[in-house]
Amino acid sequence: MAKAHIATVNAGAAGAVVRGHPWIWREAVTRIAPGAKTGDVVAIQDPAGRPIGLGLWDASSPIAARIYTRAIDRTLDAGLLVTAVARALARRERWKEDRETTAYRLCHGEGDRVPGVVIDRYADTAVLRLDGDAIAVWLSSLVDGVWPLLQALGVRSFALRASRGESDERLRPLAGDPPPDIVTVREHGVAMVVDLAHGQKTGAFLDQRENRRRVRELANGRRVLNLFSYAGGFSTAAILGGAQHVTSVDLAQAAHATAQDSMRANGIDPSAHAFVTADAFMFLDAAKKKGQRWDLIVSDPPSFAPSEKSRPRALTAYRRLHGACAAVLAPQGIFCASSCSSHVSADDFASTLDDAATGRADLSMVELHGPPWDHPTLPAAPEGRYLKFAVLV
C-alpha cells in the first residue's frame, strides 16, 4: 500500500478531530502533500506537526478528508474498514433473530465511525449507499470483506444504491442473488412494502421507525392527517392503531400506490381512507377555508435546509408550515412535527413550533425524539443528529 500523504490542518480542525468529529473541511487544510488523489490515505497532523488521525482524501468535495481512525499506529486499509463495519453489525446483534422487525440500518456511516458507508437491511437483502467519492474508490475491497459478514447474518443479496443523479440504474448487484426491486419487510410486526429500486434513500426512511410506532400508539379513535405521506408509513401505522380515518397527502401519486400496497399487506382496505395528490401548503390552505379539522396531524416534509446558507429560509418555511397545520388541528388534538434538516438544530426546530408560529396558546411539547438507536451519532458531530420528531398536545 502506498505511503500516506501528510495533511496539516488548522488549530480549530485539529481540536475538532481530537474531540471526535470525523470531517475536515477544505478551508481547514493548510498544507497537503503534492499528488494526493481522491481515495488516497492521508495522515492528518495539527499545526505543530503532531499526528492526530488517518483519513481518506477527497480532491473535489468541500469535505477534504474524513477520519477513519485516531490510532496513528494503525494502517488505514481495507482490513480496518471491514473491521469497523463488523463492529457496527455487532451493535445490531439483538435484531438478528427478530422476526417482528426485519428492516433496519446495519451501518450508519459517521455514526458508526465508518464515514460514508451506509448499509440497510431489508429482510434478506442488504443495500449499500456510499457518501463521497473517496470511499467509492474502496468499493471493491469493501464488498469483498463485508459480504461474508452479511452472509453470516442470513443476507442473500447485496446491492449498491446509486446516489441521486448518478445513473438511471439505481440498484446495482454487488454479491449474492439478484436483488428484488420490491420487498415486503416488517417493523414491530407491521408489514411495509419497500421499493428498493426507486424509493428514497436506500428504499425507505428507516430512521422514522420508532416514530411510526409512536403514531400508532396515539391514533386510536382519531381522524388523522398525514402530510408529505410518501409511502404511507405513518398512515398505515395510524390505521393499525385504531384511527377512524386517515387522509394522506403527497405530491407524488406513485407514492400513494406503494402506501396502498402496504395497507393491503396489513389487511387494510385503502378505499376506506383518502389519498390526495397535492402540495401540502395548498392543501392546508384549502382545508382551513373549508373548516376541516383533524385530531392527529403528522408533518414530515423533506429537508428545507440542504445547506447552512438556506437555514434562515428553512426556519421561515417550518414556521409557515406549522402555523398552517395548527390552523386545522382540532381542539385537544395531537400535532407530530418532524424535520430531517441537519442544519436545523433541535432548539431551532422547537422555535418553529412556538405560540407565535402556531397561533395556538394551548399546545405544549410533550416529546422530542431524535434518531433511533440503529442510527447512532457522535457526541462531537451535531450534524448527525439531523432527525427531530416533536409531539405537541
Structural commentary:
β7 and β8 form a beta hairpin. The protein starts with a strand and ends with a strand. The chain has three domains: 5-69, Archaeosine Trna-guanine Transglycosylase, Chain: A, domain 4, CATH 2.30.130.10; 78-184, 2-Layer Sandwich (Transcription Regulator spoIIAA); 205-392, Vaccinia Virus protein VP39 (Rossmann fold). It has eleven helices and 20 strands. The strands form four sheets. Strands 16-15-14-17-18-20-19 form a seven-stranded mixed beta sheet. By secondary structure, the chain is of the alpha/beta class. It is globular and about 70 Å long. Helix content is 28%, strand content 29%. It has helices at 11-19, 78-91, 133-136, 139-152, 209-218, 233-240, 253-265, 280-290, 311-327, 346-351, 355-358, and strands at residues 5-9, 23-25, 29-32, 41-45, 51-57, 63-69, 103-108, 117-122, 125-130, 157-161, 171-176, 182-187, 190-195, 223-227, 245-250, 274-277, 294-299, 329-339, 365-369, 388-392.
Structural descriptors:
single chain; 393 residues; alpha/beta; Archaeosine Trna-guanine Transglycosylase, Chain: A, domain 4; Transcription Regulator spoIIAA; Rossmann fold; 3 domains; six-stranded mixed sheet; 11 helices; 20 strands; 29% strand; globular
